[in-house]
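It is worth pausing here to work through a concrete case rather than discussing structure prediction in the abstract. The textbook approach is simple: state the sequence, then state the predicted structure, then interpret. We follow exactly that order.
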Amino acid sequence: MKFRYIAGAVALALSLAACGTSQSATKTAESADTVLKVGASPVPHAEILNFVKQNLAPAAGLKLEVVEFTDYVQPNVQLDEGQLSANFFQHKPYLDDFNASKGTKLTFVTPVHLEPLGLYSKKITSVSALAAGATVAVPNDATNLGRALKLLADNGLVKLKDGVGTAATERDVVDNPKKLQFKPLEAAQLPRSLEDVDAAVINGNYAIEAGLKPASQALVLEKTEGNPYVNGLVVQAGHEKDANIVTLGKLLQDPKVKDFIKQKYEGSVIPAE
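Step two, the predicted structure:
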């Protein structure tokens, strides 16, 4: 009777051990099959990610799913809610403003590229041709509005309050010799506004997506030296050192990615150094 009890206990222990081994193996397999779901603007972010997915990720053992968004809000909302593993569409000043206004805890991980902001028009071919009272469309989000106003100020169209820099709003315009009228719009709408306004300050990704060529078609283009608006990979705080995130960050900075950006976008998108 005692022997039968001991044998049964041994069998139970072996069964539990086998179960534990099986569960461990399952977890390992699940880990190996984990897909990194990354939200991105279609151009150039999703194109860059798809280059990585097709050319670099397989050898690194990384599985990528690229989810495209046409706005600047949902990629952060869905990342905060855990529907995405990461996103790639924004610069750090925009992220900082989003975190402050929405109470999210998202973290900038890896710089990838810069998309210079530009002033475009279908009605004039030079900044000097802007008429008195001309309407200029600008991004309506806080960081890109300030960035747009600074671009106009750097090119002598307006003067901003001393020290305000890229935090400027329309209230910080202290001199507007041409009496320009500003029309704030959602960034994604700016290329379409070119039919209705005299000029528009357009974010690089939306300009490229609309078929514009920033390097050759912008009336004026943002300077790249010392520019804080580098776009990069963003994750939930606390996930910066996750193995797959670290791997993706390294791949996005790979020399092959830099060459892809240079060749495909011909100066309209500039790899981060």
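Step three, interpretation. Residues 1-32 have pLDDT under 50 and may be disordered. The CA atoms of residues 158 and 177 lie 7 Å apart.
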